[in-house]
Amino acid sequence: MKKAIALLGSSILLLSVVACTDAKRTTNVAPDSTEDKIEVPNAQQATDSKADATSETRRRQLDADIQAREQRNNAVNQGSAENRPDKDVASEVRSKLEANLPASALVIEADKGVVTVSGSVPTQQQFDKIAPLAQEIKGVQSVKVQVAVAPAQPANAN
After folding, report:
1. How many CA atoms lie within 13 A of 91 on its CB side?
2. How far is Cα 69 from Cα 63, in angstroms, rounded to an integer?
3. Which of 6, 27, 32, 117 could link 49 by a cystine bridge, Cβ 3.0 to 4.6 Å?
4. In angstroms, what CA-CA distances link 81 with 46, 49, 121, 136, 141?
């Protein structure tokens, strides 16, 4: 029984670590950091990313992430926009962008209220939404947009 509990506990811990590694990216084809070279996803990757971002289950997860972080901020920080943890700000911005910019491949980093977004979006309309959507998150002071507008490439294009 003790072995089963230990195995279950370690499995949960491992799952938590794996789930947290992509916390700042909107999709697995997004760059790993804002310093990385921007690569345009292929058509299949963009389709898969859009399907995931627009699924009802994923939308509920994204909304729940934003609500949980807001509730924690209300409890710990008395709801203030100042002194919010960078990780919380970046996570909320990521969730907001993922839910509203399907087929994007973005990475989000925050540092003392300054949010940097890099990666790619398929249209100029999506590009134009990045800063206003990010500004909706409490604690965002300014937004640096380092995003390329690039429609997805055919899977066989190099």
Report:
1. 21
2. 10
3. 27
4. 34, 31, 28, 11, 9
Beta bridge partners of 146: 118
Q: 89, 94, 106, 32: which is closest to 62 by C-alpha?
A: 94
Residue 112, Ramachandran bin (φ over 0: left; ψ between -120 and 50: alpha; else beta): left
Helices (H), 22-123: 43-54, 56-76, 86-100
End-to-end CA distance of the chain: 53
Bridge partners for 109 per DSSP: 116
Q: Give the pLDDT of residue 123.
A: 92
Q: What are phi and psi of 41, to 5 degrees?
A: -65, 155
State the average pLDDT over residues 140-156: 85
Task: Give the integer Cα–Cα distance in Å for 143 and 154.
Answer: 31
- Rounded to whole angstroms, the Cα distance separating 127 from 148 reads 8
pLDDT tens by residue, 102-111: 888 899 999 9
DSSP state of 140: -
Entry pTM:
0.68
